[in-house]
Specification:
Pfam family, one (chains A, B): DUF1989
Largest interface: A-B, 35 and 35 residues
Number of helices of chain A: 3
Shape of chain A: globular
Organism (chains A, B): Parasphingorhabdus flavimaris
Order of helices and strands of chain A: EEEEHEEHHEEEE
Helix content of chain A: 10-25%
InterPro entries (chains A, B): DUF1989 (IPR018959)
Protein name (chains A, B): Urea carboxylase-associated family protein
Oligomer: homodimer
Largest sheet of chain A: 6 strands, antiparallel
């Protein structure tokens, strides 16, 4: 499949079949992509940060880790990862987070609004949007538990490749928030690859 | 209101009106209680660990912090807390987590099954159970992100008091898992108090 570009501050949704790989690329560097996953046969089954933290026994997911559903089933396996810094603690940016964190800046519907629009044709409602797996997002947690959102460490061409462990509906964005990408809104590229050694 | 006891390895659900306080007590010490909250007027609005981490800017919630919903609204404010160690990363223990973590022990439906049964009369389905706020649960995260579940530090009589910021349906358990309470299954006490200075 050819590379598809997600324009700055927008989103996409598409099917990913069991065994296929999804490659998400940061074409310019320093950008975040929020990823959601739903069971294509029953969208009430979706990505769960809590189940993933439970089974992987870490909040830092990279090569070799799997992302789990709210029904305790693996959805995606991280096959390749040139960055190793992603976030699974935070929810997609939204009108409300813009008002809260950037009261002096224009309000944007954010990744939440972009995901809601892209996922609607698959029968997924806004309330069914859980915490996203925030690819390339750089969120250190200090020993007291305090969270900070820093610019991503990803460079142009950095990539994460994930293999589907069931038939999925994927939601994917080029992030809209100021903090997560250092104030520079950039595109995100992705492509779907057939089952191959990885 | 009198104290209500949740027997070991079981759960309860009840309404908590805006302004009322919920007090959760560890009567014997070393026990965990999984808490869920739903908007009583529309149960599609529920507790969100990600929104809470976003707005409170920490994964360690205690006195003064608020617990937020998936619609970016505060649901509960922590008014008093004698322990200061709770978990909001992990999902309720379930048949699947028992099979995964304790393959040689009898399978139990866990807090997940207990919450699902208690919440069913309020129209809440199992798939709508998010990450719980796991009161008194002791889950250190090291600098590499690795999670460990240790016995709670709570002593007999320790308490957390939370005030409702909207009309809620609450789900509450006395935890069923081995790791979270050091293998000793104990009860949890709770009571609802009217609006008072706190």
């Amino acid at each position: 499949m050819n590379m598809t570009r997600i324009p700055p501050r927008s989103g996409a949704a598409f099917r990913l079949l069991k065994g296929q790989f999804l490659e998400v690329i940061d074409p310019e560097g320093g950008q975040v992509s929020d990823l959601l996953a739903y069971n294509a046969d029953d969208v009430r089954e979706c990505l769960s940060n809590g189940r993933t933290f439970d089974y992987e026994e870490t909040i830092r997911l990279s090569e070799g880790n799997r992302l789990w559903s709210n029904r305790s089933r693996p959805m995606l396996r991280i096959a390749h990862d040139t960055v190793g810094s992603h976030d699974f603690l935070l929810t997609p940016c939204s009108e409300d987070t813009f008002k809260h964190f950037y009261p002096d800046k224009p309000v944007h519907r954010g990744c939440f609004g972009n995901l809601a629009e892209a996922l609607a044709p698959f029968g997924i409602e806004p309330d069914a949007i859980p915490c996203a797996f925030n690819i390339f997002m750089n969120v250190p947690v200090d020993q007291a538990g305090k969270i900070e959102v820093r610019p991503p460490t990803s460079k142009a061409g950095d990539v994460i490749r994930m293999q589907a462990e069931m038939d999925l509906v994927i939601g994917l964005t080029a992030c809209s928030a100021y903090a997560s990408n250092g104030g520079s809104f950039k595109p995100i590229d992705y492509r779907v690859l057939p089952d191959l050694p990885g």
